[in-house]
Records
---
Amino acid sequence: MEVSVFLAKFWGWYLMIFFFILSLNPKRIRQIFKDLNDEKFLILSSFLAIIVGLLNIQFHNIWELSYKLIITLIGWTSLIIGLALFIFPKPTVKCLDIINIKLVQVIYMLLFFVGLFLLNISYNIILM
């Protein structure tokens, strides 16, 4: 299986699962923001984001105007957020606190559609 298709399936399923978990339990969003004030959680999540971002970028750093760009941008976003949380924890958490719950809901709705798009590309559900 091609790396792009594998990562489209991975990120598609991840984003769909993430969306349904947050939709069924919206208190989880507040919990994540609250947990970012815990230094152990912050370090662990930043390391995880850095690792996921680096792995994604190493296996898939394709800058062409297609679904492959979305996968690349997910990797770079993960790496940048992970580095920001690790290097500048307090300012980054403050920036994330500015994003209120309503904006987070809009963002994860957009991520739902990105996940749906990636799953559609990888499984050829609707021919485009």
---
Amino acid sequence: MQAAIVPVTPFQQNCTLMWCEETMEGAVVDPGGEIDRLLGIVDEQGIKLVKILVTHGHIDHAGGVADLAERLEIPIEGPHKDDKFWIDGLAEQGDRFGTGELARSFTPDRWLDGGDTVSFGNVILQVRHCPGHTPGHVIFFHEELRVAQVGDVLFQGSIGRTDFPKGDHDTLLASIRNELWPLGDDVTFIPGHGPTSTFGQERRTNPFVADG
């Protein structure tokens, strides 16, 4: 599997392109906006996008999902159904926060639960349900490559905000410790914003979730 991180929208959200090197089929995780730019990179890499994966329903992660799905006629998988209220309110989020683009709600072709898998080409990603930032947040993990796309659950040196509707600080901490840490300290993670890190590094240095 190959991956490319593409920061999009004024929020500089890490949209991630992932693709199978054998088949060149790929998926895009959290296309929050700038769809024309994303499609240009897809064409440059020779990727055939076959699905959209969504970690959670905030506008910077899901604002471009409906547009991209309609343009390419590809399915949407994720997030967990507990984020439906966020997705239903994407237009309102656009009015409130603004990304410079029109956001529309959508209905995923498949809601995801913890323990599910998603695939494209010969690539299989594990799904973990990690509520706290939002109630329906999920993350995607490639076991062989030891890489996870964690959305806004965890960042280098920080964690996701929990002051949004139905956010919960204690739930988020439990998600990190019970769903992420068991995957292994060697796992490199792609956060929803900012630079990559490893779970081991965060367990040692992150002031919110460091061991001890």
